[in-house]
Amino acid sequence: MTDTPDVFRARLLADVRHGFLGRRGGVSGGLHAGLNVGFGSDDDAATVAANRDRALAAVAPGCLLQTPYQIHSADCITVTAPLAERPRGDALATDRPGLAIGIITADCAPVLLSDTAAGVVGAAHAGWKGALAGVTDTTIAAMEALGARRDRIAAAVGPCIARASYEVDDAFRRRFEEADAANERFFADARAGHAQFDLEGYVAHRLAAAGVKRVETLGLDTYADEERFFSFRRATHRGEPDYGRQIAIIAVN
Q1: What's the rounded Cα separation, in Å, for the pair 251 and 80?
Q2: Angle formed at CA 245 by CA 114 and CA 9, multiple of 5 degrees
Q3: Residue 120: CA atoms inside 13 Å, Cβ hemisphere, count?
Q4: Whole-prediction pTM value?
Q5: Which of 31, 88, 121, 210 is deepest in the core (most CB within 10 A)?
Q6: Residue ranges per domain, the chain?
């Protein structure tokens, strides 16, 4: 592992402090080797806190990092002051300089959003459940309540499990097709009773359908790239007892 955290940035968010962090540049060891930022992991809490400090310093030094207690929901929390405790939800929105907001992933899609004219940013954790339930929609709505306009918002979908790595069963596929028959295009046939799901493409579609005109996808596969990313599914397939998590951070300039 390198000493400096990897920070993956989106071209569309170049005018705002942001970054999708990978696993390099942290102080964790063993199964969590690298920049594990998950307090829900079995890693030492002090080590996780040190990794979070490293991640924050690489993206928004001097800011106070705010993250939710993620529950795979569509709930977005508006942050107007430092949080006394982590609220349950899967997205945050803020217009306050000095507060950096972040979400944790390990295959799910991290989404960072910004309306620089309004000085409003958002961060969403879009696993399949939250994505289908509309977590990006609630994040956009929360940003609008702070003065953003969806036609000015730029959004980026960061490192997540790619379609080639994401096999699902027919019941999973039916959930999406029952919600909208057009969702069929996000699935490719695989072995009998299974399909490959394009989570990144689906999340980008939900953003565009909500009226976000500028959407960027980074095209980075967390499952396939073990050197750079943690992956829940990879750890599960290997029978490993735990896994690390990475973070995506954004802050008002």
Answers
A1: 13
A2: 35
A3: 23
A4: 0.98
A5: 121
A6: 7-162+198-251
Q: Which residues of 194-205 are buried (b: 16+ CB within 10 A; e: fewer)?
A: ebbbbbbbbbbb
CATH 3.40.640.10 correct for 7-162+198-251: no
Distance CA 37, CA 26 (A): 9
Locate 57 and state its tokens. Answer: 């310093």
Q: Are 62 and 252 in contact (CB under 8 A)?
A: no
CB 143 within 8 A of CB 168: no
Rounded CA-CA distance 10/17 in Å is 10
Q: Positive or negative CA dihedral for 15, 19, 20, 25?
A: positive
Residue-wise pLDDT for 8-38, tens only, equals 999 999 999 999 999 999 999 999 999 999 9
